[in-house]
Amino acid sequence: MEQKQNLGPSPAFIAASWLALVVGITAFLIGLFNADMELNEKGYYFTVLLFGLFAAISVQKAVRDQLEGIPVTTIYYGLSWFCTIAAIVLLTVGLWNADLLRSEKGFYAMSFTLSLFAAIAVQKNTRDAKQTEAKTKDELL
């Protein structure tokens, strides 16, 4: 039987993930900077973006830890999911009630979604690369 070798993420996928993260966050922030809204509204959307990014990374970590047999408390796992869903709901409610054009609302929703997805991919790549690096060191010893 042939042994499957874990090579880790490719440099192209790592670069694409980081590019998507930078593009998503930058687009969202440029949109906020150019938006004709009060500073407190801009702060709300900025905070929701940061909250969503952190929550999505926490979900990815908790799910991955469970798959690898690393103990994850039920409260952390549940809170990670709750916070991710809460960030999406907060953005949705904020955009629903905002006095913005539909195209602007769509822009914020899509750049937010791209940022969350890319944050998960970057975190996954970072973890995979570390594991591959550790396995390579172990094999050399």
From TrEMBL:
InterPro entries: YiaA-like, YiaAB
GO annotations of cellular component type: plasma membrane
Segments traversing the membrane: 12-32, 44-63, 75-94, 106-122
Record carries keyword Transmembrane: yes
Top-level taxon in the UniProt lineage: Bacteria
Record has Transmembrane as a keyword: yes
Secretion signal, residue range per the UniProt entry: none
Keywords of this entry: Membrane, Transmembrane, Transmembrane helix
NCBIfam families in the cross-refs: PRK11383.1
PANTHER family assigned: INNER MEMBRANE PROTEIN YIAA, INNER MEMBRANE PROTEIN YIAA-RELATED
Protein name: YiaAB two helix domain-containing protein
